[in-house]
Amino acid sequence: MKKILFCIFLLSASMMFAENLKTIQDKKVLRVGVFAEQPPFSTKTSDGYQGFEVELAQALASGIFPDGGGKIEFIGVKASDRITFLQNNTIDLLIATLTKTPEREELIDFSIPYFTVNLAILTRKADKITQLSDLADKTIIVEKNSIAEKYFDSKGYKLVTCNSAMNCYNLLKEGKGDGFVNDNLIVLAYPVIDSSVEIGVKNIGSTDLLGIGVQKGNQELLKIVNSELIKLSKGGFFAKAFNDTLDPFYKGTAEKKYFLLDDLYRMFM
Question: Whole-prediction pTM value?
Answer without folding.
Answer: 0.83
